[in-house]
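Entry:
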Amino acid sequence: MRCGGALVISCEVKINDMTYDLTVVGGGPAGLSAAIYAVRSGLNTLLIEKGLCGGLLNEIPQIENYPAFKSISGMELASKLKEHASEYAEIRELEEVLSIMRKGENFVVKTEKGEYETRAVALCTGSRKRKLGVEGEEKFLGKGVSYCATCDGFFFKNKRVLVVGGGNSAVTEALFLKNIGCNVTLVHRRDTLRAEKYLQMRLLKEIPVRWNAEVRRIEGEERVQRVVIYDKKRQREEEVECDAVFIAIGEEPNSELASQLGVALDPEQIHNYGQAPKDECSACLRRWGCRWRSSSGCCCLC
């Protein structure tokens, strides 16, 4: 394996000989909370996060409905959560978990940097942004197609942007883009929004909405230049010129590791209670007195 040094034979080494009581996979709010509770319950705990702690929370421009904070950015809240959890658990960021295997009564968690032995695993792997699945979406990713207004919005100040979606995420991103100087239009496939009423009221005062409209194609030469939408009422396609498309149509669970372990998932893999696998994991679940849970992503104990 290449590791930057010519004489390195392999980077796959065991980090230490310690056996952890619990390894938490995922450093979002669920994972950080799990780590805090675990250590306070007397468990020697390791948390592994493939990116930066906070997960998708880091991409939220502004949060106004979290108790104790009238208004706070997702990035700032993520920083506070990490700071709190760091006082209790060992945290390893920028280290992706590749596989989890059984080793007798324990598990071996294999990452890009090494292996960790643990008596139990908490999967708090969260979710990823759902894609539209339309022509041009992949081609123009990073060239006008984005899933994060906080990350990319400032590149499109004073330019025409479309936000696709009708929930809290879409409305929050649309308002953020409007506030930084973008010319924003919201595109929604229904005739009503699903976002909170408070957010809807703010949006409808400032931002035009294309109701009953579905994105069919994203087109351009080197960058996004237009979007082809289908007007469901008029039953016809229409071209809308724009410089960027911000897609906010929900999330999909990162449930691959749970599936790999043999945990039975509900049909949609999200927002329902799951079922423990009929193998050794069941005994482990009983041993730790925990149960499977899936909510806004994937979170279970094995």
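Residues 145-247 form a domain with the FAD/NAD(P)-binding domain fold (CATH 3.50.50.60).
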